[in-house]
């Protein structure tokens, strides 16, 4: 009987562990003063919103039951007291610090010294130049401190660090109009007799030339350099686990010069090449190979990512995005790394928009008020997220093991201070509750 009970408990434990972990990332992005969609700061700080746990008790229980976490921008830590951060832990919520610097064209050592120690390279003040935090008076000054010092001067160690995308943002690419010899006036041409190689040279744009010629390998090594600084910073405390965001966009193919060479060789005719380019008819999927190489590199230094989150554009060529998602999921499963999706609004900054599913295509309804006259823009986002998640479940991309980050990086939902209360339809907490109660729990993906 005793052995039978042990077996039952073991099976129950395995079932619990198989469920995806859910991260909640409200868009309290007032600390990101450099990032202003539509020219405005996004909402307020955590101090007067999500630090008030009485405003979102149901969501906290959903997260706690499912080993969930809360995402906080690394730049927000300087606005928070140590006690405020510890309160999240006392609520049994892990804290993810979202690192903003990986999109910047500096090597991994420089980025690590900047974010963990507040040391800008040379005589620059990158916190002011890049992040627009200049002589702050309402937060901890990150200069000489880095992001991980609270408003009241305590050193803070997050449970996890989330890395923004580094590739393909910092690889060189080809201006397409110049590549195909097209100007704004279709009657005119740049240099009609240039060879393919000369056209590539003329069209080349490099956002980060100091990263060198072996670009993808160098950008991958920056993760290693950064992590060595991270381990040095937190060597006397618990070293944070890492999460990675990974682009699922057609831009990978458009920035893959070797793939474009193959495409041009196959379609030397301009109109055929244009069609193949625009509609990605011959994808190389080198991005999935890069993902595999990066994860193996990180695991080789004993820092396997806890999860790799797919940052998706599903609306341009949905079939392409689904193909990449399935390929990446397969790769990560073989590497024993969790597969995740960033569940964000595909409408981005459109004011009158709902994401809908037509057959197997994800589309934007840009006249949503006509179809949904009673929905606010916040509620449109809520409906959009639920439509996308149901679609990904129906496409077998999302299953019980998938990690899901319910988050927003855009203007919506607009919710200041106590307006974040979870009873308000369209608010981020209300949206997350709807996702749990209408989708995840009924599908047995969550408890």
TrEMBL record:
Q: Which source organism?
A: Adineta ricciae
Q: Keywords in UniProt for this one? A: Signal
Q: What is this protein called?
A: Uncharacterized protein
Q: Which residues form the signal peptide?
A: 1-18
């Amino acid at each position: 009987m005793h052995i039978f009970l042990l077996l039952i408990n073991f099976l129950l434990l395995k079932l619990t562990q198989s469920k995806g972990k859910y991260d909640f990332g409200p868009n309290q992005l007032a600390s990101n003063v450099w990032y202003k969609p539509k020219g405005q700061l996004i909402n307020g700080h955590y101090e007067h919103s999500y630090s008030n746990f009485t405003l979102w008790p149901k969501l906290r229980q959903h997260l706690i039951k499912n080993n969930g976490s809360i995402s906080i921008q690394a730049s927000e830590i300087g606005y928070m007291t140590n006690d405020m951060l510890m309160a999240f832990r006392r609520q049994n919520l892990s804290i993810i610090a979202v690192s903003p610097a990986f999109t910047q064209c500096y090597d991994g050592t420089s980025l690590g010294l900047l974010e963990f120690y507040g040391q800008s390279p040379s005589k620059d003040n990158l916190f002011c130049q890049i992040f627009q935090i200049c002589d702050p008076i309402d937060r901890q000054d990150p200069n000489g401190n880095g992001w991980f010092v609270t408003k009241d001067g305590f050193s803070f160690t997050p449970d996890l660090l989330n890395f923004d995308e580094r590739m393909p943002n910092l690889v060189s690419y080809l201006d397409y109009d110049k590549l195909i010899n097209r100007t704004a006036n279709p009657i005119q041409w740049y240099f009609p007799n240039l060879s393919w190689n000369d056209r590539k040279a003329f069209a080349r744009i490099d956002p980060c030339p100091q990263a060198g010629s072996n670009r993808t390998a160098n950008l991958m090594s920056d993760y290693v350099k950064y992590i060595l600084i991270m381990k040095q910073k937190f060597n006397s405390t618990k070293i944070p686990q890492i999460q990675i965001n990974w682009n699922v966009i057609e831009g990978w193919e458009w920035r893959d010069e070797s793939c474009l060479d193959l495409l041009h060789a196959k379609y030397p005719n301009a109109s055929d090449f244009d069609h193949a380019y625009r509609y990605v008819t011959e994808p190389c999927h080198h991005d999935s190979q890069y993902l595999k190489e990066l994860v193996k590199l990180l695991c080789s230094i004993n820092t396997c990512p806890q999860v790799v989150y797919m940052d998706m554009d599903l609306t341009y060529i949905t079939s392409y995005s689904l193909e990449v998602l399935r390929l990446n999921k397969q790769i990560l499963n073989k590497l024993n790394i969790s597969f995740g999706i960033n569940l964000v609004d595909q409408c981005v900054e459109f004011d009158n928009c709902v994401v809908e599913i037509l057959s197997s295509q994800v589309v934007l309804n840009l006249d949503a008020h006509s179809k949904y006259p009673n929905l606010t823009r916040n509620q449109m986002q809520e409906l959009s997220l639920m439509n996308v998640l149901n679609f990904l479940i129906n496409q077998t991309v999302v299953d019980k093991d998938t990690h899901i980050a319910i988050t927003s990086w855009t203007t919506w939902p607009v919710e200041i201070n106590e307006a974040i209360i979870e009873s308000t339809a369209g608010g981020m907490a209300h949206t997350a509750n709807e996702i749990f109660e209408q989708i995840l729990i009924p599908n047995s993906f969550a408890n």
